[in-house]
Amino acid sequence: MKTLNLHLSHSTGTGLADWTGQSPPTPVHQRGKSLLATGQSLPAFGPYKQRREALEHELLRTRDLLKPDPASTGLAQRQRPVVKPVPKVSDIVGASVGLVGNYYDLDNKQQVVALVNDDLCINCGKCYMTCNDSGYQAIEFDAETHLPRVTDDCTGCTLCASVCPIIDCITMVPRVGEYVPKRGVPFGAALEQKQAAVIMPAQDSPA
């Protein structure tokens, strides 16, 4: 019922003509203040912050202010609201049935991993703590810069993205290469040992 109400609210009343219901991309910022892309992974505290500010000052000094900002997010301009006709309930019921598919139609090899935006990161360490406590210990935390780094052990569980307090700081991107799980023993070894334990007594028993 809640899903039906949400669909009705998005399909009627006053809205934006080309709005898809998705939030616009989050511009790079620190504590609400926009940042320039320096091309370096620098945290926003201590001497690293001073170095970042020096790089930004140099970029502003050499940039042509009459040209568009290359770091601009390019958000769409505000559009005039339009009034949409109220749909019938019969037109809404079952609207998502066509999106339901078979599990076996999915490709299990299409996996994702976490990607941390160093410019948006506030160095709180929540992703590191969550991954180490409840995940796969796939995030390393730099003791000096306090910047997290995702290792190849990431399974794409999205725990880190769930606890991150900054929107879009952690995003899930397609994995490059095939994921090889580390279970402590070769894949299938436990099953082979169990089958061997069942077969061996049968071979030793008298005919």
Automatic annotation (TrEMBL):
GO terms for cellular component: cytosol. InterPro entries: 4Fe4S_Fe-S-bd (IPR017896), 4Fe4S_Fe_S_CS (IPR017900). Residues 1-32 are annotated as: Disordered. Residues 112-144, 146-175 form the 4Fe-4S ferredoxin-type domain. It comes from the Eukaryota. One of its GO terms (biological process) is uracil catabolic process. Pfam families: Fer4_21. Keywords: Oxidoreductase. Residues 1-14 have a biased composition (Polar residues). One of its GO terms (molecular function) is dihydropyrimidine dehydrogenase (NADP+) activity. This is Dihydropyrimidine dehydrogenase. It comes from Macrostomum lignano. The lineage of its organism: Eukaryota, Metazoa, Spiralia, Lophotrochozoa, Platyhelminthes.
